[in-house]
Amino acid sequence: MYSLTPGYRVPAIQRGLSPAEAVLTKANAGAGAAILASALLHQPPVWALGAVAGVAGLINIAPGRRSIARWATVGVRYLSERRTTPALASSEGATGTWTLYPHHGTMQDSYLRASFHTRFAQALTFAANQARTAGIQVHVTHHAAVSDVTDHTQTISVHIPKGLVGHPERVLSTIEGELAALGVLAPVTPEPAPAVAGRSGSWVALDDGRYAATARITGWPAETDGDLMPKLLLGPGADRAERSLAVLYRPLPAAQSRRSAKWQVAAGEAFTTDKIKQEAHAAASETARDALVQGACLVDIDAYLTVWGDSPEEVTDARWEASLTADRHRISLDWLTGQQQRAYVMTTPHGAPTRKGAVL
Asked: Fewer CB within 10 A of the end CB, N or C, for the chain?
C-alpha cells in the first residue's frame, strides 16, 4: 500500500499487454521457432522470414515508452473513445471494498512499516493461492484532498472474477480478516465514478466540474524504503494539488510463480550478453528463489497517479508539479497520452475489477 514492492512482481516483458498483443507475441514466437526448425531441413522462403521479422519489429521496436504496435493500439482506442467511453470496470464477479487506516505511527516508524508490508504480503499470498490460475486482484487507493487541511481517504478493494472461485464470499471474508490486522478496517460502498464530460489528449473533464490527468508509474527506485506514497502525496507544500494514487496487485498462485521465475531465469541467461547485467539478474533470481521457497508469491503490479484541478490550466500545472516531484525522487511517469478519458478510473475503487491490459 505504501510500497510498490511488498512482494515480488513478474518481469515487465509481458506486463500490460492487451489480449491482441499477447496473441501476436505468442504467434510470432511460434512462427519464428517453426521457421528456424524448418531451416535445418529446407531453406524457408524469404517472405516467411520477412513476415516474422516485420511482426517482431512491430512488437519490439519502441519509439518512446511503447512499441509501434502499442502506439497503434493507443491511436485506435483514442479515435473510438472520442465517440463513446467503454465500461472499463465491467468484469463480473464478487468485489469487496473497505476503508483502511493503519494504526497511528505505523508509516512513520521504519520497523512498524516493514511489519505492515510483511502482513500485507501475506494477505496477497493467501489471495493468490485461492485459485489455480491468477485472477484475484487487490486494488489499493489513497486520495489526498487539499484545502485548509488535507483530508486523506484510503481504500482497499478485492475483486474475484466470476467462475474463478467456487465460493468467493468465503475468500473475501478471510481476506477481510487478514486486512483487519493492519489497522482500522470498515466496509464501504464506493460512490459512482464521475462520467466524462470532455476529453483531451492530456486531461479529461468530468461531470462534477473537476479535471483530471493520470499517469502510470513505470519505474521507481529500489531504495524507496516503503515511503513512496508519502513522497508523492504527503510532501511539504501548502499549494499541493489534489492527488490520488492507486496500486493494482495481481498475485500469482504458487505453481505459476515458480514457472514465471524459471522462465525469467532462462530468458536472462539466453538473451543477456552483458556480464554485469547477468550477475545482477542472478542475484535478483536468488533473492526471488529464496522467497518462493519460504512460501512467497510473485505479484504483478500496476501503479497510477492522478492529479485533479478545477480547470485545464490548473490540472496542467498540477501535472507539471507531479512530474517535478517524481523526477526528484527518481520515479518515472507515463501520462498515457490519448487515454485520459478512462485512465482516471484506475485511481478510484472502481479500478478493482479492471481487465488486465485495458490501460496501456
From this structure: C
Q: For residue 290, what are the CA distances in angstroms to 166, 221, 261, 283?
A: 32, 22, 11, 11
* Tens-digit pLDDT profile for residues 91-127: 788 999 999 988 887 877 778 888 888 888 888 888 8
The amino acid at 148: D
Range with lowest mean pLDDT among 22-36, 194-208, 225-239, 331-345: 225-239
Name the β-bridge partners of 212.
204, 308
pLDDT digits (tens, 9 = 90+) for 208-250: 889 999 998 887 776 556 666 666 665 554 456 788 989 899 8
Query: Which of 129, 143, 54, 145 is CA-nearest to residue 351?
Result: 143
Distance CA 16, CA 311 (A): 31
- Whether 205 contacts 198, CB under 8 Å: yes
Q: To which residue does cell 522462465 refer?
A: 263
Assign 26 a pLDDT band (cuts: 50, 70, 90). Answer: confident
Grid coordinates in use for 102? 493503519
Using an 8 Å Cβ cutoff, are 88 and 174 in contact? no
Contact in structure between 30 and 23 (CB atoms under 8 Å) = no
C-alpha cell at 38: 524448418
Among 45, 128, 50, smallest CA distance to 295 is for 128
Q: Are strands 332-334 and 211-219 parallel, antiparallel or unpaired?
A: antiparallel
Sign of torsion over alpha carbons 68, 70, 71, 76: positive
